[in-house]
Design goal:
L-fucose Isomerase, Chain A, domain 3; single chain; 595 residues; carbohydrate metabolism; Rossmann fold
Length: 595
Amino acid sequence: MLKTEFPKIGIRPTIDGRRRGIRESLEEQTMQMAKSAAELIESTLKYPDGTPVKTVIADTTIGGVHEAAMCKAKFDKENVCGTLTVTPCWCYGSETMDMSKDLPHAIWGFNGTERPGAVYLAAVLAAHTQKGIPAFGIYGEDVQDADDTSIPEDVKEKIIRYAKAAYAVGIMHNKAYLSIGNVAMGIGGSIADADFFQDYLGMRNEYVDMSEIVRRWDEKIYDEKEFKKALAWAKEYTPVGKDVYNEDDPNKFTDEEKEEQLEKCVKMYMIAKDLMDGNTTLADLGFKEESEGHYAIAAGFQGQRQWTDHFPNGDYMETMMNSQYDWNGIHAPHVFATENDSLNGTTMLFNYLLTNTPQIFADVRTFWSADAIERVSGTKLTGLAANGFLHLSNSGAQTVDATGQEKIDGKPAIKPFYDLTEDEAKANLDKTRWVPANIGYFRGGGFSSNYVTEGGPDGMPVTMARVNLVKGVGPELQIAEGYAVDLPENVFNVVNDRTDPGWPSTFFVPKLTGKGAFKSVYDVMNNWGANHGAISYGHIGADLITLASILRIPVNMHNVDEDKIFRPRSWASLGTENLEAADFNACKAFGPLYD
């Protein structure tokens, strides 16, 4: 994981500025609201490295423009990535608001009858909308007593949802997406769009040719001592298995050639980390420039075909980059896209920053209806899969953390690295085979990870998402919450044998709503915007919607309950009946966050 200074949420306690009794009577209550909000955020959320997130509170309550400016100056020094304004009372809206256009803002107005916090909330939100600086409005449903310092559950939920998204925005800002190679097999998502990254995400694009890996092989621009340790670990924990594809192929590789390929695959993994993060050891070897890396928070590898027609494929590297365990023990994963699909890599990054969990990169490969399954297997599906499922699979480049061996409350899960046990990490690898690549696809050899995601009796809750670019519109986000499910053994065997039996598989059932793109499982597949999807543990659709609204990326397809949707109040000014249309109109009206 890229070493970086993490951003903070800035908390702004605003107050009625009238002295000689009014302001003085509100000072303690107002500052206590700020402290309560800070405690809630810091005790609930963690940065990707597992440490508690940080907040910073203004030095004084804010009763006017001078104190607002002093607060802004402090926040600029403290690397603030979003603001939360809190108040129990009336304040002077445009005099106390934060005018920063490139930061997300939220305002919590206390619902109490003694002082009109709700009136200020409405007034300042109107000012935000009028000035084109969208802000989230937070207002508890139930009236509280003036001396009640607790935070209602509905307010907590909105504060945390906003804070998660604001931290994600801040962590992405000024980082890079690194393309190792270029466009893979004409896939549109691997045409990295610099304007999208710059205007919407505040990121830059970095590029290296795949020949950089060969240069580092040949010139030994890697840690030789670590390589020996890594290779020994790989032979023990990721041993090459049976060659299921190429048994009868006269061009199949010898065991010696496979051994050489494994060495190259391990080096590729090491080099990819160095390219993203940098590595001070390289400076000691005389490679100062290479030691600095590309400050990349996400990356992708082209692979096919210019690389894979001659060299071992990138599956081993990509799997291990997206996983949380290797010869250095348990660690944070990277975000690393197959086929340099930068749009799927972006979606993986969104998911990761909202959950701190490793991501599944997969082809949205096949829709299997219940009738089709019964026809080919003789088995009628029941339970979650009764209406059919989507087979998510790629060539073996997805995180091994998705085997289902990690458990929460005894159920299959995908955990952040800081909650992962050594036994779970090893169990993931025990459940994973490493299959020599199909040389029909990959002439240069290599190895694919192979496992099936275990869903358990209740299914593993997951969310599949995808950013797509639409000419004339810009980016759009698709979201499908659902479950990874288990199949009866005979059904699995039929399905697996009809595709690629050496690749990893996740069987996904989206939640259906009976309307739009979620009328049926088929409709989800039929409306999906690309051949890839990013799959995260948990039902995180509401968090993704909030994040997308901050970045001004409209959501064109989702199955999130309406009462969970949390967007800036300005969105209501563009429509309250058709929320999808209002989202598109708002994103167009306010424009990208960094444009």
